[in-house]
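Protocol step 6 of 9: fold each sequence in the batch and record its structure tokens directly after the sequence line. For illustration, a two-sequence batch is reproduced in full.

Sequence one:
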Amino acid sequence: MEVLELYEQVERSARPRMLKNLEQLSADEFVRELPGIGWGSIRNSLMHIFGAENFWIRRILQGQEDASVGKPEDYTSVADARAKWEEVAAETKRFLRGLTPEQLTEVKTYKFRDGTMDLRIDYVVHHILTHEFHHKGQLMMALRTLGYEPQETDLL
């Protein structure tokens, strides 16, 4: 499956189901520190997912200096996070649609603080999606810990 098609499939199916599950949370549960969850809270974990996507697309692939999605306090609800993620996703799709198939597979060297890395754009997008699914699993487990029974969030 072409990387843009795969990204759009995740955005159309798995991501909305995950967010719908999270919408069951009270405002307190959304921001509450939970032992064992990456990034401390469901809000912070959700921010980390779309913040990482924003970082990889804007900062690494597009070279934009400001790739911030704001502070945790900017997000008091799942709806706030969804709105920002929709902005990030629109930028991701705009960027990917502007590339040729050859550009998607070009290997480019990116400089990080502690060295360099050779990256293909399509591999970066696969990384963004596997990263999202990794943390989505953690979020669904957090919901179960809080007593919820989340609905299926798989891609298919």
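Sequence two, same batch, same settings:
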Amino acid sequence: MATVRVLVIDDEEIVRISCRKALRSAGYEVDTAASGKECLDLLEEGMYPVVLIDLKMPAMDGIETLVTIKKRYPDLQVIIMSGYDTVEHVVESLCSGAAHYIEKPFTPDMLVKRISEVLETCP
């Protein structure tokens, strides 16, 4: 079975490093980006079955990135993560096409569980 590639987008380097470490330990191949634009550039180069995006980022926020991804790659699974958890954020994320939502801070086990749950629903 091929290694699953995950793309993590967050403007905070420590979050990217933490996610990479947790996901690699679980056997995933991980690429990271610091912005929505960088994410879109990476998606042009290669395909990922799942993308993890921070909600609050400068310039292009997580919802804008999510909407752009879903227009270009409708089958791509996107998980929104945020430390600003409100019902409105969750609803907006899910209504915009997110497959799941994860609240920061999260444990490595919770991150791996969310990625697994989303991958199980992939066609």
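Proceed to step 7 once all outputs are recorded. Observation for sequence two: Helices lie at 13-25, 36-45, 62-72, 87-95, 108-120.
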